Amino acid sequence: MSFPPWLTWLDECASTNTWALQHIDKFKQGDVVFTPRQTSGRGQQGRLWYAPAGVLTASFILQPIAPAELPLLSLAAGLAVIHALEDLISLPASALGIKWPNDVLLWGRKLAGVLGEARLPLAVVGVGLNRQVDWEMVLAAGTINLTPEQVTSLSEITATPPDVLPLLVKLRDYLLQAHGVIRHGGLAGLLPQLRQRDVLYGCPLIVSTGQGNLTGAGAGIDELGRLLVQSNNGSLQALAAGRVLRWEALRRGQE
Ligand SMILES: O=C(O)CCCC[C@@H]1SC[C@@H]2NC(=O)N[C@@H]21
């Protein structure tokens, strides 16, 4: 198989993000590291991120970035995943959504996650996308503690998920585009799209903030990439980090 010059294809590696960070000196804008077998992936907040067979695991190198741009780029990566998939698969506009800060959901179940890391002025944006995962088999094996309601895969909606290379090409194109938008005007240019895809907007939720749990309703995402929460005590809070523990999706005309 011949690969485009920007692609490093590794037969196996612990983590494409770790590999990219370890070899950062040889990368430039738009380079991509991919492996079909990631053995020790990393997720948000230092968690291990298990990738069963059929997950697309790749890291995209973008430069330059300033420190404050990393969370913006990670959010924009969710949009890039959505645009790439909508170009390659016929999907209703309400199928794919973003759950702050880094999840892409398909009909409310996790389809992809993003981990953005920086070696300034470079950013390594890792994407794990459930392309062709047999979750029934994976969950039955008990290696991973999830329920079928939490996860999904492209193979659940199409018998022929797009091949890896066309997916990487699209993801890379949209990430480069998003990087340009953020460099020139921050997140502002992407906020309308984020608002449209924000599955937490208007939903009752509980967020673990590091200083305790905050209960309220999602009130959008601001220009700094923070989650806005209208808390039950009446104040509007802006969270730069946190983990949404529970959220109750309001059906917004999807059924
Ligand atoms: O959902 C999350 O917590 C983020 C998951 C990010 C996983 C991807 S897979 C490619 C890249 N390499 C890693 O080790 N992590 C990211």
UniProtKB/TrEMBL annotation:
GO CC list: cytoplasm
Alphabetic keyword roster: Biotin, Ligase
Enzyme class per UniProt: ligase
Gene Ontology molecular function, alphabetical: biotin--[biotin carboxyl-carrier protein] ligase activity
EC number from the UniProt entry: 6.3.4.15
Pfam family, one: BPL_C
Limits of the BPL/LPL catalytic domain: 1-180
Protein name: biotin--[biotin carboxyl-carrier protein] ligase
Species in which this protein is naturally found: Gloeomargarita lithophora Alchichica-D10
